[in-house]
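On clarity, I found the account of how folds are encoded harder to follow than it need be. Since the whole study asks how a given chain folds, the encoding of that fold should be made plain. For the editor and my fellow referees, an illustration may be useful. An entry of this sort, consisting of the sequence and the corresponding backbone structure tokens, reads as follows:

:::
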Amino acid sequence: MSAFINRARAYIAATIAADPAVFAWFLNGGAAMLAAYVFGLGSTGEAAVATIITALSALYTALKARPAGVAAAVGALATILTAAGTFGLHLSPHTSAMVTTVASIVLSLLFRANLTPVATLKAKAAAASRM
């Protein structure tokens, strides 16, 4: 059983390293849905969770993908828009969670298509140094 668990952990780690933006923004959308539907946070609580998780997703993407400037700029914009939308528009927690989740899906697909994971760059550099 431990061999299976070790293979599963290695597979998950490789998947996260291969697509860090998808992983980060998937967690962002999931956290927004959990905050609204499972934990039943009110408008302010859900807004705070959505904004903080969006900022953390943006930071993780900027650290784990290149060019980092693009990820940081788009992530900062996403965080500002999330804060403005959740605190300023006074949407219900459910509506806010749905909007955050849809935005997370769009951002993950955009980042996946336009950013290169740091792990890929390190693997290419290691392969080039062996030649």
